[in-house]
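Our preliminary data section would be incomplete without showing what the modeling component actually yields. Below, a chain of 295 amino acids is followed by its predicted structure, encoded as tokens that our downstream tools consume directly.
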Amino acid sequence: MPEATGNPEAARFGVGIPASDEVFYVKGSNHLDWGMQDRLSRIFNPKSGKTVMLAFDHGYIMGPTSGMERMDLNVRPLIPYADVLMCTRGALRSVIPPNSNRPISLRVTAGSTVLAGDDLFQECIGVNIEDAVRLNASAMAVQACVGGKYEYATLKNLAEVIDAGNRYGIPTLGVTAVGRELTRDARYLAMASRVVAELGAHVIKTYYCEEGFEQVTAACPVPIVIAGGKRIPELDALTMCYNAIDQGASGVDMGRNIFQADDPVAMLQAVRAVVHDGEKPAQALEMYETLKNQS
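Predicted structure:
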């Protein structure tokens, strides 16, 4: 534009410079509202695009879990090394300091405990949207038992929470529960993850499988974070994290493999190195051993 040449006012307005329109970096989230994207940007590291969630919501179905008997003593030292805290509202209000400045993935389903046996997944919505807002939740976690006895009820819970979250700009984390009668293979995990995503969940938490996991992540239009599951040896846990990220996962949500490690703080830091920095499992284990010996 000729009139823009040497024109100070035109320079201040940036005449001739196209407006920037950045694509939001979290998978499947480019068309979400600003508040949704803001909360997801707290969950997923803007540099790596990944997340390390610390899960300590086990107590709502398991009671005092090994390694988490005293949450005030077990959880607080780990907070600086977690990207996200996944917990219940009771634990949040009673244990986590409000100045921790960590995003919260709030468990909002309830209903049965491990004492219920096969009825473990018979759940209801246990936290309403107003309380999630009061707690400044960055996500709401809902269990969905795809293919199980309580499939309809849990998917109904999920849909209701997604609707409520959409009204207030809070993403929903869909947790794909696996009953005893279901196999954690790629075919099932891909179906469960896709169903939960199609219902509108913004992030999926599911299990890792050694064969075909890249198909699970490829078929899911939103980020997948893997569950840690029961405790396994440190090298195995770090290898699982590495393989999951390498095959398309956007993070991990670990509890017992952190809390039940010989040195939970060192283990969480080693997991972070794998997820955010691409550290190989053997090197991450060396890091873990070094940090453990220093503590």
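The two ends are 65 Å apart (CA to CA). The beta strands are 51-55, 84-87, 104-107, 109-110, 124-125, 139-144, 172-176, 203-206, 224-227, 251-254. Preliminary results of this kind motivate Aim 1 of the renewal.
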